[in-house]
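This part of the workshop introduces the protein records we will be handling. A record pairs a protein's sequence with a compact description of its fold. Backbone structure tokens are a discrete shorthand for how the chain folds in space. The question running through the whole workshop is how a given chain folds. The record below serves as our worked example for the rest of this section.
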Amino acid sequence: MGNFKINVSDAPFFILTGFPGTEAMEPWLSFPLLLLYAIAIVGNILILLIVKEEPSLHQPMYYFLSLLSVNDLGVSFSTLPTVLAALCFQARVIAFNVCLAQMFFIHLFSWTESGILLAMSFDRYVAICNPLHYAAVLTNARIVAMGLCTVLRSFALILVFPLLLHRLPFCHPRNILSHAYCLHVDMIKLACTDVSLNSHYGLSIVLFTFGLDSALILLSYVLIFRSVLAIASPGERLKTLNTCVSHVLAVLIFYVPMVSVSIVHRFGAGLPHAVHTLMSLIYLFVPPMLNPIIYSIKTKEIQRRLLKMLFRVRS
């Protein structure tokens, strides 16, 4: 039998995977996922509407929260079409270019979220460590510039992924992905050539973005805690730290699953496929769902406006 080599131009298709071994139950398993999507989409849209309508929330902290909500909507809508198609309608075949586009947007929004969380930590640092200059430092123009820089950084770094993937040949008769959506690390595993360039570049930008951002976030909180400890009143210390709780939780629910997914992908080759699937689902689904819930619980202004909206709908 001759060499069987398929290039993307000859067979531009991949096959999505749901929950292996539970194919008969997948339509039922899709309901919890769709519920998570609904909570994430409705929750983040409500946050955007509340920040827009509530004048007291027209502050830098909540502008950054709005950016986070827009980004979380992007994460949800990036994965929704293929998850819905694969699990609910058993439509598992995806064209290479469509897969490439989905992979690009999933990673773009993930990288952007890291940058937004860094910008939010800077907001908390200025508010607590330099409150007298807060309004002068975080002007509307600077907030827009920080948001644009975060998106452009992610765009420039992720743009290389499709270019590197286009040069790879795929040799398998069936290019079966590990999930119901396309990820870079998943796609390069199916190539039949050396992928060290793709792998090294992926690792380097992970260190450059997630590694650098998390280190700067940690540094900002070290400086914040040092400033808080200088406050004489224990009550004032607690009140000041309470303004950071929502952001700390948002950082944890983003970075902990992300680090866990990276560890599982690189060192968990012997683990059951269900573990890989579960970790990826937590990484992509949990932050967009929990972020609006956390900020709604911890922010009284959002709570009040949300209750007003609910009572208005009922009446």
